[in-house]
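Reply to dn_fold:

You asked what the input looked like. This is it:
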Amino acid sequence: MRVSKKNIVVLVYTVNNLSTKVVPLAEVEDVTVNCQDGLWFDGGGTIRQIGEHRNCGQNSVREGVIGVYDRSQIEQLNSMLHAASYATSRPPCPFD
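and this is what came back:
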């Protein structure tokens, strides 16, 4: 899946970790994107498909990047909407 770098957006937690926001890829330091293969890599070395979010479940750390998306793909925008809702629907875990 080839993706244009200009269409990449990143869903992240806000500074207070209570909400989310969408930012351009250039504003995120700990994410690498491979547009040729449609993959993104987080600071911990985990590889995911563009359009896929990380686990934001009850025991996950509530900070940083949630997912990387192609803004030109409506299915990915829909996925981003659900990931944002899920990531903020639970109370912060004690490790946050």
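The chain is about 15% helix and 30% strand.
Hope that clears it up.
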